[in-house]
């Protein structure tokens, strides 16, 4: 049940298949006889240096993959100085995550209902020390994901004979979760607000964005953009960065593949406007593909949860190392010692992989 919640996509999942096929069709340009003995994987990001060109996408209820998953991701973010996207529906309080991430956390926001709880969360994120807010705009209604529905994975969540059988067939997961306690949507345990996952998110408008821009003095990213006209309007509205994303094909099955839209949006917003990417990234070469198509920074999602479920925190770090190795090898093969506008690496900063 939990695997299908993490892995599943909207409808018959042709959108997820299209994302993968379109990514696979992007080729890199091999270059030869360049000195690439030392490669530097750092990239500039909102005035800082991230040690990798990829970070952690906001994902809901990560502690379902393993108890403590949210904080495993936070520690990883702190170590590599990359952003940990903290979901509105995280299973650990947003205050705890930014503390463990040593400030390397961005708060992801859903607008729901009439916005009362939404703006409470904005104030709470501000008080906790968040300086980057990520407004996710591609879920006016939660997509229909049949794999979840077949398991009864819906809100309010109910447990019946089928779920008990599923739990019994997966004793390691069941026992560790039982020992740790049922994961909760931790950010909604606050006075005067009850979260309803089924509540419509469809009332958000450009006026909502303007109000959010006025109240949030930090960096504002809008995530879930797949239209060139929308991208141009967001730039005009004073948004600091755009994240091209189809929500991992979890919302609209017939949405275009984000990697296909990315270069068109880059052409529209210009070469210097911050442009981020997620959806379907599975390897270091995928990260390179996205950057070649115009992304300044890339976010990883499902594969991080799979690594945690399979091998805990050690598994997460092993996957991170694999993606880093793949990225470095792809840089060598394409004749790149540096990414973007990084400074020349010094002996203390260089990464030999």
TrEMBL record:
Keyword list, A-Z: Flavoprotein, FMN, Oxidoreductase
Pfam families according to UniProt: FMN_dh (PF01070)
Cofactor needs: FMN
Binding-site positions, FMN: 58-60, 87, 108, 136, 223, 245, 278-282, 301-302
Entry annotation: catalytic residues: 247 (proton acceptor)
GO molecular function, one term: FMN binding
Matches recorded under InterPro entries: Aldolase_TIM, Alpha-hydoxy_acid_DH_FMN, FMN-dep_DH, FMN_HAD
Tree of life domain: Bacteria
Residues binding glyoxylate: 5, 110, 145, 247, 250
Oxidoreductase is among the record's keywords: yes
All residue ranges annotated as the FMN hydroxy acid dehydrogenase domain in the record: 1-352
Keyword Oxidoreductase on entry: yes
Family from the record: Belongs to the FMN-dependent alpha-hydroxy acid dehydrogenase family.
PANTHER family per UniProt: 2-HYDROXYACID OXIDASE 1 (PTHR10578:SF107), S -2-HYDROXY-ACID OXIDASE-RELATED (PTHR10578)
Name of the featured protein: Lactate dehydrogenase
